[in-house]
Write a structure and sequence with these properties.
Layout (H helix, E strand, L loop, with lengths): L1 H24 L6 H26 L5 H16 L1 E9 L6 E7 L4 E9 L10 E6 L2 E3 L2 E4 L2 E8 L6 E8 L3 E9 L10 E4 L4 E6 L7 E8 L2 E4 L9 E7 L2 E6 L8 E9 L2 E12 L5 H61 L1
Length: 344
């Protein structure tokens, strides 16, 4: 019995150790196969997590680029389509021009069409250019040639020309530009201490923003009315009109001002000139008139004095003559009377 008992004892001890280990680890007896599968599953999960982490932390496509591409696609789909055509007169050496104003992204077609009167011209070599760059064109009809453009920013603006060469050479030029801003050709005149109001307008197009500048030497300095509220007031009266009000004018405010309108395709500026006069300037005409009046009154007064003096002298001379005449008559009378006495 002791021998048998001692033979079973190592197995019992092993089981007790196994139970103790399981109780300490918080686990339960498990089949080795299941444990291996769990380990494989855990390893797979770890690998998946690592891959997920790599995907999150990897550079990948830039979010800004994606947004830009999406915005560009939407922009392309929302862009308007316009067509412009120049009818070529067929006179050799002539060039016809057309100004085209664009304020936003646009799909545009430019065409040159030869007048039907000159459809007899054959073997024409047609060339489209943007600056010095030659562009591919399409033959719309037998006598019409065009190009299709997608204008997204101001770098694509400029002059596009088509030239027909054959027996004669004819050309046309399309000038693509942002809207022009109307300033004021004549200077705005005001006086020291007064308030000047300058106005800029954009006809037919709505700017996204307005900015005012003043010229300081050769530089243009942006005017910030929020920092200089006691000097400048900028009002956007409507979407197409902006006002710059300058308070308490001084001679330093005299100069050139610019209003800048921002459009989707670029910026455009209008020029205005302010002339600030001294307070003595409006008095100069009045002072000149007063001086003229004083001179005139002085001349009249001197003339009157001269006339009166002359009249007095004439009267004195007349009176002297009369006295002399009376004396002469009296002397003659005395002589006659003495002669009579002698005769008696």
């Amino acid at each position: 019995m002791p021998a048998a008992f001692s033979g079973k004892r190592p197995g019992l001890r092993l089981r007790l150790l196994l139970l103790l280990c399981l109780s300490l680890s918080g686990g339960s007896p498990a089949d080795p196969t299941v444990t291996t599968q769990d380990a494989s599953h855990s390893q797979a999960n770890s690998l998946t997590k690592m891959q997920t982490g790599l995907n999150v932390s990897s550079p990948g496509p830039d979010l800004t680029t994606q947004e830009f591409k999406q915005e560009t696609k939407e922009h392309v789909s929302n862009a308007t389509f316009v067509e412009y055509e120049i009818l070529l007169p067929g006179v050799s050496g002539t060039s016809t021009e057309k100004n085209i104003t664009l304020d936003r992204a646009t799909r545009i077609e430019l065409s040159c069409r030869l007048d039907n009167k000159h459809s007899h011209l054959k073997s024409l070599q047609v060339t489209w250019k943007w600056g010095n760059e030659t562009l591919r064109h399409i033959n719309k009809t037998e006598n019409s040639w065009g190009i299709q453009l997608r204008i997204w920013d101001n770098s694509q603006l400029g002059s596009y020309s088509c030239t027909l060469k054959g027996e004669e050479e004819i050309s046309a030029v399309f000038h693509l530009q942002v809207p022009k801003i109307e300033g004021k050709e004549k200077p705005i005149v005001s006086y020291e201490g007064d308030t000047a109001v300058m106005i800029c307008k954009s006809f037919g197009y709505t700017p996204t923003a307005w900015t005012w500048y003043m010229t300081n030497g050769s530089e243009q300095v942006a005017i910030n009315d929020s920092l200089l509220a006691d000097k400048y007031v900028i009002n956007r009266v409507s979407a197409n009109v902006t006002h710059l009000k300058i308070l308490k004018l001084t001679k330093e405010d005299d100069g050139i001002y610019w209003c800048e309108a921002g459009f989707e395709l670029g910026k455009s500026k209008g020029k205005l000139k302010l002339k600030v006069l001294s307070l003595m300037v409006p008095l100069k005409p009045f002072l000149a008139i007063v001086a003229e009046v004083i001179v005139l009154v002085t001349v009249v007064f001197l003339y009157e004095m001269y006339s009166k003096k002359k009249e007095k002298c004439a009267a004195d001379e007349k009176e002297f003559d009369q006295i002399e005449q009376l004396k002469s008559e009296e002397s003659n009378g005395l002589e006659n009377s003495s002669t009579r006495h002698r005769k008696i």
